[in-house]
Amino acid sequence: MSKAGEPFQWIVDHIDFDGEECLKRPFSTKEDGYGICWFKAKRYRAHRMMCAVAHGPAPTPSHEAAHSCGKGNHGCCNPRHLSWKTPKENQADRVAHGTAPRGSAHGAAKLTESDVLAMRAEYRPRVNGYAKVGRKFGVAPSVAARAILGQNWRHIGTE
């Protein structure tokens, strides 16, 4: 266990880190891989604190501390890898890095990749429509339609 103030002091001590490799904090992380840091009795994610100390405050409250390395969930706090981005920009980076949960890896997914492929194979307009296919797989017709049409689950392709 670290002493009070040590995690924040570590950030201050490393704002001039100029290495290209990821810089991992020597303190504990949450289950999602990100570290936390307390400052003036308020809890922050460590990479967000590093971004603020190294690059100034976030332009807006909705801006996120984004990682150019794609290894934020591994505890990277390299100030050269961090910048302020909008949630949309940060999500686009996650997709580009391959770190965004997609398909059945997403916590809210009700289908698997094999389910979607099977749905696409079974769908026949006016014979085996979205409602019928959706019922078979336990999802609403609108969910089935978006999966079949490739509006969702694009990463597994369409036929």
Which stretches are poorly predicted, pLDDT < 50 over at least 5 residues? none
Percent of residues in beta strands?
5-15%
Briefly, what CATH class of the largest domain?
A: Alpha Beta
Question: Count of DSSP helices?
Answer: 6
- The appropriate CATH architecture of the largest domain is Alpha-Beta Complex
- Rg is 21 Å
Strand order of the largest sheet: 1-2
Number of domains: 2
Overall SS class: alpha+beta
Largest sheet: 2 strands, antiparallel
Global geometry? elongated
Distance between the termini: 54 Å
- What is the fold named in CATH at topology level of the largest domain? Homing Intron 3 (I-Ppo) Encoded Endonuclease, Chain A
What share of residues is helical? Answer: 25-40%
Helix and strand run: HEEHEEHHHH
What does this structure look like?
The protein is 35% helix and 10% strand. By secondary structure, the chain is α+β, with helices and mostly antiparallel strands. Strand 1 and strand 2 (42-45) form a beta hairpin. Helix 1 (6-13) crosses helix 2 (46-55) and helix 5 crosses helix 6. The model has no long low-confidence stretch (mean pLDDT 88).
